[in-house]
Amino acid sequence: MYHHIKKLMYTVQIGTPDPKFGNMLLEQFGGANGELAAAMQYSIQGLNCDDPERKDMLMDIGTEELSHLEIVGTLARMHLKPLKNNRTAAEMDPLIAIAGGGGVALQNSMGDAWTADYLKITGELDVDLRSNIAAEARAKIVYERLIHFCADGGTIDALQFLMTREITHMKAFTAALESLGKDRFSIGSIPPTPKLVNQYFDDSTGIGDRGEPNARGPWNAGGDWELVEAPAFKEVESDEKGTRQASNGPAGNGKHSLHTRSKSRSRE
Question: Residue 244 class from Cβ within 10 Å (0-12 exposed, 13-18 middle, 19+ buried)?
């Protein structure tokens, strides 16, 4: 059950309205990483969750995100207000001024409509928690960029509050994930193929034009890792599909290509 209280979670105050910045704020209202997407994602995950404790957390945070949506919407409306009656301001964003009457709409900063395609809901609690951690990280960066482009002190204060809460939620989702006691790479119920799971394919080779190296690090060396030469340059044989091998391409042009050679079968 939802109940609306006529008071913002964080009171917003601005100085001079900035319609162009108000348009930027719509990214966190109806954008892919915005508050509505977060509220819907966590709430629907909560409705689907069979774990009572973590369901409670998902519903808590999902509900808080609706309060954040209200803050962002109020803040954006304050900055967009000149578009309602001022011709010069309206020319900055005719879509908002003419179609929306100078108010907020469920769209991002480019005018693209909000869509449920933004939501990441799998029905697997640990997978969903990982998605939520990433979602909060993306939202944090968006707020950081908004702060960077903002000159109004009151707006910055509100954005700082919202940005901080993203980290709070990241902490909660991370703690919930870790409390499940699952191995970091234990996803679903079917285990990965042994040996193959530890093979790192070296598919980006050579030195780049700007000095980019063919790097080694903890993501492909040490521990259980086995570095595998790029399949494009390594002969790979298969009983079912024949042989794939590198060649210099047609007419000796020096470019690498793949071709398949089926194994010949003798006929009587």
Answer: middle
Q: Which CATH architecture has domain 19-179?
A: Up-down Bundle (1.20)
Token pair, residue 138, equals 């993306």
Q: 240 — alpha (psi -120 to 50), left (phi > 0) or beta?
A: alpha
Per residue in 223-264, pLDDT tens?
999 999 887 776 544 444 555 554 454 444 444 444 444 444
- What is the residue extent of each domain of the chain? 19-179, 196-261
Q: What is the pLDDT of residues 180-231, one digit of tens each?
A: 999 999 999 999 999 999 999 999 888 888 888 999 999 999 999 999 988 7
* Angle of helix 52-80 versus helix 35-48 axis, rounded to 10: 160
Whole-number pLDDT of residue 248: 52
Q: CB within 8 A of 184, min separation 6: which ones? A: none
- Selected residue with higher pLDDT from 83 and 165: 165
Q: Which of left, alpha, beta for 125 (phi over 0: left; psi -120 to 50: alpha)? A: alpha
**Residues 6 or more apart in contact with residue 52 via CB below 8 angstroms:** none
Q: How far apart are CA 124 and CA 140, in angstroms?
A: 24
Q: CB of 66 within 8 A of CB of 39?
A: yes
Structural contact between residues 232 and 242, judged by C-beta atoms closer than 8 angstroms: no
d(CA 161, CA 155): 10
